[in-house]
Amino acid sequence: ETGVTQSPTHLIKTRGQQVTLRCSSQSGHNTVSWYQQALGQGPQFIFQYYREEENGRGNFPPRFSGLQFPNYSSELNVNALELDDSALYLCASTPGGHGSEQYFGPGTRLTVT
Amino acid sequence: GENVEQHPSTLSVQEGDSAVIKCTYSDSASNYFPWYKQELGKGPQLIIDIRSNVGEKKDQRIAVTLNKTAKHFSLHITETQPEDSAVYFCASHPPGATNKLIFGTGTLLAVQP
């Protein structure tokens, strides 16, 4: 176990709705990254948070947004859900410094109908 | 853009045999190469990694080799066991101030008892 937890485990939403996913990073890890993993694919980087600010983003539209809190936990928010947003959403925490080891949580399985 | 190619997509071996998975990355400035094991319904688990200043790293039955000139890196698993069955992902860390990883498309390894 990595010590990274995510909630909920899975959820089902309707197209057009909004969703919030949560992540608690491993103790002492101040950087959290979010990834989207479509079925049968590798994870794709959404964005990264460090010291409560977004400091890196992949090729995802602005309707994907996030937050990081003083205790380093994080949220991923997705607005105006589309069918293609159905995926496993993973967060990964890092002890600090870019290029450091990333430890993933178990993920949240989102299904959009 | 940055890209990681991974082969083969599926690999079936007999228990006790060796398994080799190969990856090629596109950005020659990439400096960190982790390997993850993902079991069904779980998040990716970091199993071994290598940095660009090292050519080979070994941890018990697992080893990773890196050829910077050819932009290739490989995972070697010796004396495979049924519990090694999973999807394996390679990844590269391109230069930059984030922890963004570029993942390969995964290899489904099946170890037959």
Tell me what you see in this structure.
Chain A is 0% helix and 50% strand. With 113 residues, chain A is mainly beta. Chain B has 113 residues and is mainly beta. Helix content of chain B is 0%, strand content 54%. Chain B is globular, with a radius of gyration of 14 Å. The mean pLDDT of chain B is 94. At the A-B interface, β5, β9 and β10 of A face β4, β5 and β10 of B.
What's the Cα radius of gyration of chain A?
13 Å
Q: List the total number of helices of chain B.
A: 0
Shape of chain A from CA axes?
globular
Strand content of chain A: over 45%
Based on the structure, what is the oligomeric state of the protein chains? heterodimer
- How many beta-strand segments of chain A? 11
Strand content of chain B: over 45%
Helix-strand blueprint:
The complex is a heterodimer of chains A (113) and B (113).
Chain A: E1 5-7, E2 10-13, E3 19-24, E4 31-37, E5 44-50, E6 53-57, E7 64-68, E8 74-78, E9 87-94, E10 103-104, E11 108-112
Parallel strand pairs in A: 2-11
Antiparallel strand pairs in A: 1-3, 3-8, 4-5, 4-9, 5-6, 7-8, 9-10, 9-11
Chain B: E1 4-7, E2 10-14, E3 19-25, E4 32-38, E5 45-51, E6 56-59, E7 62-67, E8 72-77, E9 86-92, E10 102-103, E11 107-112
Tags for this model:
heterodimer, A: 113 residues, mainly beta, 7-stranded mixed β-sheet, 4-stranded antiparallel β-sheet, globular, B: 113 residues, 6-stranded mixed β-sheet, 5-stranded antiparallel β-sheet, 54% strand
Structure in a nutshell:
The complex is a heterodimer of chains A (113) and B (113). Chain A has 113 residues and is mainly beta. Chain A contains no helices and eleven strands.
